[in-house]
């Protein structure tokens, strides 16, 4: 219990600090703003006791923008993606109205997308493409919602259209948790998910960087989405992450997919 409470208090202090100082982010240069958000994500993961390991080499924005795309199982995925690479994030527009979290995400340069209104999708795709051209690095989760990890949802092609328009590289990123209790799916609540996470002795997340794809060399956004999904699924099969021997061995049964996602 002391470990759980300590982790929660540390995380809460960081989030409140981020809220207080978030207005300062908008006056920073783009590079410094992204670097500050990256540091914040790393500190938050550390405060929650989550050990982050990166395997492989991520493509870095340079002459060509990079769209980082990952599988989606938990709210932790968002922090992990930002922690491994300074980037803007694509998130559902509903999060913008959340107290504390919404203002921080907005100040950090989040690109909002309303997936429930198809009429707004073309404009949202163009915003993501513009963010790629300007910032050079954007991350998103094309499944659109969280899945338990054993199952994965189809990759929706909209975000890949933005990569095609911006002539970007697509960097597939496979996210693997050593313990299934970190999943945030089904009728789960964020509070319950956070409590399970801080209750784990050694929650561990491995980020696998896969060979990037060039959007300018793929015939369509659908083909790009399929190729990315296949690459991530293959990496997850070939590089299973084992639960450490010191961690609890009883794993919570997988929940059905489809919970409301933070991204």
UniProtKB/TrEMBL annotation:
Q: Which domain of life is it from?
A: Bacteria
Identify the InterPro entries for this entry: Plipid/glycerol_acylTrfase (IPR002123)
Upper classification of the source organism reads:
Bacteria, Bacillati, Actinomycetota, Actinomycetes, Mycobacteriales
> Which keywords accompany this UniProt record?
Acyltransferase, Lipid biosynthesis, Lipid metabolism, Transferase
Molecular-function annotations in GO:
acyltransferase activity
Pathway it belongs to?
A: Lipid metabolism
Q: What's the protein here called? A: Lysophospholipid acyltransferase family protein
Q: Any idea where the Phospholipid/glycerol acyltransferase domain is? A: 66-178
Q: Where is this region: Disordered?
A: 239-263
Q: Name one Pfam family in it.
A: Acyltransferase
């Amino acid at each position: 219990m002391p470990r759980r409470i300590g982790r929660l208090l540390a995380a809460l202090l960081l989030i409140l600090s981020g809220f207080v100082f978030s207005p300062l982010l908008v006056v920073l240069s783009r590079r410094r703003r992204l670097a500050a958000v990256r540091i914040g994500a790393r500190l938050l993961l550390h405060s929650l006791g989550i050990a982050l390991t990166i395997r492989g080499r991520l493509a870095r924005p340079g002459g060509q923008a990079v769209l980082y795309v990952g599988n989606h199982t938990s709210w932790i995925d968002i922090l992990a993606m930002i922690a491994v690479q300074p980037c803007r994030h694509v998130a559902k527009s509903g999060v913008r109205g959340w107290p504390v979290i919404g203002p921080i995400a907005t100040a950090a340069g989040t690109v909002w997308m309303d997936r429930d209104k198809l009429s707004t999708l073309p404009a949202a795709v163009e915003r993501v493409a513009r963010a790629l051209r300007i910032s050079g690095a954007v991350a998103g989760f094309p499944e659109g919602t969280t899945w338990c990890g054993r199952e994965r949802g189809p990759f929706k092609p909209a975000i890949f259209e933005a990569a095609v328009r911006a002539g970007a590289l697509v960097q597939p990123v496979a996210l693997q948790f050593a313990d299934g209790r970190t999943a945030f799916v089904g009728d789960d609540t964020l509070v319950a998910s956070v409590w399970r996470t801080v209750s784990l002795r050694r929650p561990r997340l491995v980020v696998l960087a896969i060979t990037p794809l060039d959007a300018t060399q793929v015939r369509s956004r659908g083909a790009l989405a399929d190729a990315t999904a296949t690459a991530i699924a293959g990496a997850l099969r070939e590089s299973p992450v084992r639960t450490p021997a010191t961690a609890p061995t009883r794993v919570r049964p997988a929940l059905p997919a489809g919970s409301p996602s933070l991204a």
